[in-house]
Amino acid sequence: MEDKLKIVREILKKYNQEHLIQFYSELTESQKSDLLNQILEIDFEEILYLYEKSKKDVLDSTEEVEPLDYSIKADLTKSQLKSLSSVGLKAIKSGKVGVITLAGGQGSRLGFSGPKGTFKLDIAPKKSLFEILCDYLKKYNDKYKICIPWYIMTSTNNYFDTLKFFERNKFFGYERNNIMFFNQENMPIIDIHGKLVLSETYKINLASNGNGNLFASLKNANLIKDMELRKLQWLFVGGIDNVLLDPLDPIFIGYTINSKCEVASKTLFKENPTDISWVFAKKYGKPAIADCENFTEELSKITDKKGKYLYRETNMLAHLFSLKAIQKMSNVSFPYHRAFRKNAFVNEEGMKQVPDKPNIYKFEQFVFDAFSHFNKIALLRVDPEKEFAPIKDFNGKYNPEAAAQRYEEIVLKNK
Fold it and tell me: Over 90: is that where the pLDDT of 231 sits?
């Protein structure tokens, strides 16, 4: 272990990160070994490059942005809805559609200890977010005598807890061989001074590196091969927290298939033009979601000759990818985006400290960065009253109580 420690000291000195072993002499032999191995696995060159690069990043320019075409679900005629639904149901019933759920988060913002997907909605009877999503899938399975392949992306922090939760609940009656769990990768977090952070005196603080790691994680888990063997053609990608999100909406699937696009997204209309939010647009001639913070109001007011807004479609994390698109993106290197967050850390005295304001930078990849690798995208605006009730925190607009009420009104009453 002394030879390994010598190598680690040299690495840390090179990157000015010697503080990571300041408590080394106080650790057990096992803790020492774990810390050294963790340090040797970290790509310091990459994380410090991202840190320096992010300080120079600039916002998008309006000169680089063009509008994307979209359809509005509420404006489709009954004939169009019936036709699209028929196309979508044909794909579902023939076993060509699978579902990917992004469930790497913890329930800490809800004051809840455990994977966010295990949080229970206060309905009668109470149901976890996982069970609510499972119910959507089982509805199609039971009706059409199929079993939709369900891929669940977890984080290293919640993988085992998620798996145990499903085991305790007997997988909610779902066929076990049709649920696949896989982990996304981690990235060290870094403080405002460019220093990596300890979560324990013997452990470096890592965070999941964003939902854009989906494609590489699927490949690393050999699940793209699984999709190929199952002869899937379409994969729906959605988050775990939106209780009104039907992952097998046949209208959306049919709309995407008819569009001849490899990728598609459901969108929400940005009601308030002054809101700072990312919008769907073309950047450099390719589909994208643009961060237009400095000119939000300017862009939001632009319409075409018919009065149709050109830059008011926002992301609701409801995407459809062809299998070919997923195969392609699994070989693409995604950019990282910097987020300023609040995170507990071990201070110079070796004590865990909880900050009262943001103190670290987290680097994440976003799934929507895949869009720029395609020439077009199918966008379908939906009604948030019918399809958007996420649970974000306890006190904000998107809280558990509001989600439960909407779920009862939209889903339970229409059973």
Answer: yes
Instruction: Kindly tell me if the per-residue pLDDT of 295 is higher than 70.
Output: no
Which phi and psi angles does 127 have, rounded to 5°?
-135, 140
* Residue 69: closest CA among 414, 372, 310: 310
Question: Given a cut of 70, is residue 58 above it in pLDDT?
Answer: no
Which range has the worst mean pLDDT, 5-14, 261-270, 290-299? 290-299
The whole-number average pLDDT for the span 14-18 is 96
Domain ranges of the chain: 1-41, 42-414
For residues 198 and 9, what is the distance between their CA atoms, to the nearest angstrom? 16
Q: What's the chain look like in SS3?
A: CHHHHHHHHHHHHHCCCHHHHCCHHHCCHHHHHHHHHHHHHCCHHHHHHHHHHHCCCCCCCHHHEECCCCEEHHHCCHHHHHHHHHHHHHHHHCCCEEEEEECCCECHHHCCCCEHHHCEECCCCCEEHHHHHHHHHHHHHHHHCCCCCEEEEECCCCHHHHHHHHHHCHHHHCCHHHEEEEECCEEECEECCCCECEEECCEECEEECCHHHHHHHHHHCCHHHHHHHCCCCEEEEEECCECCCCCCCHHHHHHHHHHCCCEEEEEEECCCCCCCCCEEEEECCEEEEECCHHHHHHHHCCECCCCCECCCEEEEEEEEEEHHHHHHHCCCCCCCEEEEECCCEECCCCCEECCCCCCEEEEECCHHHHHHHCCCCEEEECCHHHHCCECCCCCCCCCHHHHHHHHHHHCHHHC
Give CA–CA dist 320/16, Å, rounded: 43
pLDDT band at 396 (very low <50, low <70, confident <90, very high): confident
Q: Give the pLDDT band of residue 294 (cuts 50, 70, 90).
A: low
Buried b (16+ CB within 10 A) or exposed e, 112-133: bebbbbbbbbebeeebbbbbbb
CATH of domain 42-414: 3.90.550.10
C-alpha pair distances (Å), 351 with each of 200, 201, 343, 354: 8, 8, 14, 10
